[in-house]
Amino acid sequence: MALMEIEAGTLVTPRGVTESARMKLRGKGSLYGETVVTPGFSDAHAHPQVIDAGEGRWSNAYEWIRNRRLKVDEAALRADLDLSSKLAAASMLRSLLDGVTLMALVGRGDANVLAYRKLPVKPRVVVMPTIMDLQAGWPDAWRVTSLLLSVSALDGAIPLGFFIHSIGCVTPESLRAAYSAAKELGVPFSIHLSEGIDELPTLVSLLNLRKGEDSKIIGVHCISGSGYKEYGIRVVHCPLSNLRLYGKTIGRPGEVDAVGSDWPLLLGSAAAAYKAAVKVHGRGWASYLLSKSTVGGYELFGIGWEGDVLVFDEPLEKVLEGSVSPRFVLVKGEVAVEEGRLVKLDLGKDEVDKKVRELIKEAVENYPARCLNLYSSCPTGDGGAGAVR
Ligand SMILES: [Zn+2]
Q1: Is there a contact between 333 and 306 (Cβ–Cβ < 8 Å)?
Q2: 334 bridge partner residues
Q3: Averaged pLDDT of the chain
Q4: How far, CA to CA in Å, does 336 sit from each of 121, 214, 280, 319?
Q5: Strand, coil or helix: what is 324?
Q6: What is the pLDDT of residues 217-231, one digit of tens each?
Q7: Which residue spans within 291-374 are E strands per DSSP?
Q8: Selection from 31, 137, 40 nearest residue 79 by Cα
């Protein structure tokens, strides 16, 4: 078997940091990096179809959902499979260039699967369609279960899971059905939780959770309340969107299990989320946060990380700051980014950013919010968006 050798000035793995180390992977050739990190960044929560979040600061997610003014009609955009799929592809490619080697994609499930299948280079993914049956146009737990079963029947190669938009946007029946299906199928179950309101007591009561038992629930945000660990709830930290919407984020970084970009096309990738987390919590937390921002997401979803590698020209200090991008990115042992450009597609960051801007423009032009200038008479009171995230 041919082997690729990667020589590292400093090698960072889940087992620790080693100076002057070598890694061998399947493949051929050799690479040298001043710093080599394995695995790459993991984005434990991303909405690839979100291209607008409105303006303003809010006290909690429900206040934002009710009162935000969007430029785009999200329900109409989401109904466009082709555009939704192109946005998902752009999210994956832009993140890959930043060194993101695993993404958990929520939103329109079939669009995300389609994008993943079509791309010649891509991060690993976990596809978790959004359940939000109290908003028109979004599926309930049963529809998502059918989608997951049909996608897994295709070839079983894409890890799947359930994503509940939030306690306030689903029926209790849908919430319970999705949780029990996730347990039965042995797939991840994730939920937006406690974004400005402590929702832990309600979740505990709705799902009959017990202290000391491992619920395996993945809670996204969790900026309010405490005691998540007592129920085995893993916490995904989304500092970029938390700061944007609420002007605050998680206060106890030691409770973070992984990071999420939330809106990669609007706010940046999981690498940007890592950088923001270090800025908020301080350099003293950088090693811990780097571990949670890389292997943390893999552990959350039970995904293997062999062959996922970032090769940097800069010393570890710069990598820990989050201020540099990898020169090479490998996914499953194959080079996906070479000299800062996507292989097979020959695209760099500037070109992908341009494509993202074009797609956002297309979305806003084709699907403008119906009630943009008629706030007071908008029947849904949500800027005509009808649906959220
Ligand atoms: Zn989210």
Answers
A1: yes
A2: 331
A3: 93
A4: 6, 36, 31, 19
A5: coil
A6: 999 999 999 999 999
A7: 309-312, 328-331, 334-338, 341-342
A8: 137
What are the strands of the beta sheet with 124-127, ordered from one edge?
41-46, 100-105, 124-127
Which percentage of the chain shows pLDDT scores above 90?
88
Q: How many CB atoms lie within 10 A of CB 302?
A: 12
Residue with tokens 């499953």: 332
C-beta neighbour count of 46 within 10 angstroms: 30
- Residue 342's pLDDT is 98
**Domains identified in the chain and CATH numbers:** 41-305+341-377 (3.20.20.140)
Ligand 1 centre distance from Cα of residue 26 (Å): 36
Phi, psi at residue 45, to the nearest 5°? -165, 110
Ligand 1 geometric centre to CA of 304 (Å): 24
- Amino acid letter, 338: E
- The whole-number pLDDT of residue 280 equals 97
Cα 339 to ligand 1 centre (Å): 32
What pLDDT band is residue 155 in, cutting at 50, 70 and 90? Answer: confident
- Say what the pLDDT of residue 2 is: 78
How far lies 169's CA from each of 27, 131, 133, 261, in Å?
47, 9, 7, 21
Q: Tell me the CA–centroid distance for residue 258 and ligand 1, in Å.
A: 14
**Å from CA of 4 to ligand 1 middle:** 38
Distance CA 170, CA 168 (A): 6
Count CB-CB contacts under 10 A for residue 191: 26
Distance 312 CA to ligand 1 centre (A): 30
Closest by CA to 86, choosing from 55, 143, 48, 37, is 48
Q: Ligand 1 centroid vs 20 CA: distance in angstroms?
A: 39
Distance in Å, CA 45 to ligand 1 centroid: 6
CA 166 to ligand 1 center in whole angstroms: 9
